[in-house]
Specification:
Blueprint lengths: L4 E6 L5 H13 L3 E6 L9 H8 L3 E2 L5 H6 L2 H6 L3 E7 L1 H9 L5 H7 L5 E5 L3 H5 L1 H12 L3 E2 L3 E4 L5 E5 L3 H13 L16 E6 L4 E4 L2 E3 L6 H12 L3 E6 L10 E5 L3 H11 L4 E4 L6 E3 L19 E3 L3 H6 L7 E8 L3 H12 L3 E6 L9 E2 L1 E5 L2 E4 L3 E2 H16 L1
Parallel strand pairs: 1-2, 1-4, 2-3, 4-5, 5-6, 9-12, 9-14, 12-13, 14-17, 17-18
Antiparallel strand pairs: 7-8, 10-11, 15-16, 18-20, 19-22, 20-21
Helix pairs in contact: 1-2, 1-9, 5-8, 10-14
This protein binds cytidine-5'-triphosphate (CTP).
Length: about 400
Amino acid sequence: MKPPHILLIVGGGIAAYKACELIRLIRKAGMTVRCVLTEGGAQFITPMTLAALSENEVFTTLWDLKNETEMGHIQLSREADLIVVCPATADLLAKMAAGISDSLATTVLLATDTPVLAVPAMNVRMWQHAATQRNVARLRDDGVTVIDPDDGAMACGEFGPGRLPEPVAIMERIEAALARPSGLREGQGLPLYGKRVLITAGPTHEPIDPVRYIANRSSGKQGFAIAAAAAALGADVHLIAGPVHLPTPPGVTRIDVETAREMAAAVDAALPADIAILVAAVADWRTADAADQKIKKTGGALPVLQLAENPDILAGLAHDARRPALLVGFAAETENVVEHAQAKLARKGCDWIVANDVSGDVMGGADNAVHIVTAQGVESWSNLPKDQVARKLMEKIADVVR
Ligand code: CTP
């Protein structure tokens, strides 16, 4: 069988250099690749670099007659099993969404019915701009797979979503796109396709003063694993994460928060959802009045922290008019795990409680032994790695919401 062939369109952004590594990975996976370099892209890397890495001629202009007779723009896309736009600049996304064809790259994209995977990379403000978000939504609606950019420090000195995902992660999405039966969109055919899943994860930090906070030992691993498992089953996942050092799972929309009140507001803004799984270890209390300046030792009286209760996000959601059809809470207990979980199920008004004994090293650890507590009864699972707990839980959820 012929190996898969990729048409790689390299746009004009500083992340263009990462396309070089992507070509290497595509070829290492046994695929062939041909590149189209936009005028902007050629400001960052040269056709020679791409030609050497792909071992194929590189195309840059629509008006190259020799190529129009021998390898026209229609042929370029027709021979490809997948078109990858990487980096996809704000300008390229806008032109794709509007159907503008004013260059070789945009003409190929308009003239094709080959699946397209766009990998955006741009300044955080450009990514968050309403126009870009509108274009991305339109493209997804049109069937283009648009990967969410990574969060982090950017070449322009700013911080936030907009970084090109690592080439290894892009490669995973290329392989997933190639594995999809033709005509299906990303996730289509999977059990949770079309379902919006809201997940909270990690701890919350409640400030005492500008340098100190109240926290807990939650690592966010279990919640992030659940987000990854839900996305792998085709769900549209919105992950509201407390302060953790974990990478965003592929295909997941992540909203970072710090405090319980910020988490509650982010959950509210992410509604409506079909399914909500609240895994976060939300701080029950915050300081009633966080100090504006660092609290100093006075040499005499010790500072007294006055606490106030945080909103209960799970209980609030259970009584909200927009309550998800399936609402799952977690319970971190150190004794009488199932009994406490049953009481919590009734008290909070959710459908299931996933209860775990956190008296050992579960918080921050790699494994978890859980009990699924519902009105119908209790199902206890043996100790499993957190990603397996996540997969089993999402498969169980997919079975009931189907
Ligand atoms: N939870 C929440 N908002 C809070 C506290 C907890 O949404 N302010 C959610 C958690 O995400 C979890 C569930 O409620 O899904 C249970 O959390 P847990 O900390 O075990 O329960 P608490 O409400 O804190 O009860 P207790 O401290 O009495 O065990």
